[in-house]
Amino acid sequence: MSRTRPINCIIPPYLLEKLMESDDRDVRQAALATLLTTARLRGERSVRAGFAAAAAPGNGRRTIFDCEQTESFTNAVVARSEDGPASLDDSVNRAFDALGLTRDFFKEVFQRNSVDGRGMRLDGFTHYGFMYDNAFWDGQRMVFGDGDGVSVGDLTGSLDVIAHELSHGVTDFTSGFEYHNQSGALNESMSDVFGSLVKQWSLKETAEEADWLIGAEVWTPAIEGDALRSLKAPGTAFAGDPQPDRMSKFVHSPDTFWGDWGSVHSNSGIPNKAFYLAAMGIGGFAFERVGLIWYESLKASTADDQFQDFADTTFQKAGQLFGVGSTEQSAVMAAWQEVEVPLRSVPSGLARARSHAFNGNGGAGREDGLAALTRQIGTLNDKVTGLTKEVTTLKGAR
User: At 351, is the pLDDT very low, low, confident or very high (cuts 50, 70, 90)?
Assistant: First the structure.
């Protein structure tokens, strides 16, 4: 089925609706205006994906434009280019630097040349609209609002937000996850994962050292400790956070703009938590091993894959990249089981054994359980090999 392409916004409709209940008149008006503008943009750019593939290559060259608080892209002025001097505008410089860090992350960690893998130029538009409470990727460009200054800060102020949005472009040119229901939640989750990894990579943080938050700098900037989302603990990023952390809490809503396309921003908490658990189970720098597993799985996925499809792919990729029964593969299996997404490729009895191997944090008892789990996987592989030989012998005797 052919579907139109929504723009990918960092702040979902349910949060903007929450802001419309604010006691602050300016906050209410900014939230309403943002919702209406975003809905209009969705209609205007519903076929944007068809043009993205035709974007001119430019070795990931960056150009930052200033919309001067209008909603016009054609009248935006160039504020900074790849070879030009720094701007006097902090928003412009933050956008420029964050696009560069994200581009360099994909190049150095995954050997990917810009979001499309072919050097697609990176255009960013700052100061979009008046008190626009969002940032988005529309299939061709990055767009940043200034926020209302109270509940939402300048959207160029968070590296993981910018990396999140630009990563939607990577998904566009790989799996192309359809932006609705479970595939849409996977789309959002991949951007949260890469957004967090870009920040961790830039700070040289291990999985244990990272905060695993998205948008802490721009969501209620005056309040410490909250964020738009938490990969570590979905549902706790802010008061009333609706993100589930397991399938038994899956959120059902209409596949419409106002229903957030089947709660893609909420249900992304489930694969987000799986990634966090796998990263903690493996340990070290998350972008080195579990990040590679997720990236290679993204490339191997199809547009309508569901959670279980993607879980199976990550398990298989972990085995291909690091070995069957490896720490990495065992951690991936344990992570998906923890969020109640069963793997088709693993017998249920073997999957249950993971609870003895991992406690979700790579803590005490992990090595003994892991060794037992590895032996079980090895035994299973031996049985499969034996059966294969028997079948081959039978065929030869016929």
Answer: low
